[in-house]
Amino acid sequence: MNPDKIIDGLSQQLAAELKAMTKAKDVAEKEAYSRVVKNLCDSLGVFFSLMSDMMPYDYDDEEDDGPF
Description:
Oligomer: single chain
Radius of gyration: 18 Å
Shape: elongated
């Protein structure tokens, strides 16, 4: 799976849940949305941590001239 697509999907879902949370009327419904938002943020955090851990190993900047 493409990590960029996963991050985009999680971000879109997070925005939708936050919007829905603002429209919630009672406390129980707001609490349910807040748990969903927390889980989505935690999921995004996993990908961001992975990306920051991999930054020193970014090979896109190096030229690939082959094995020789």
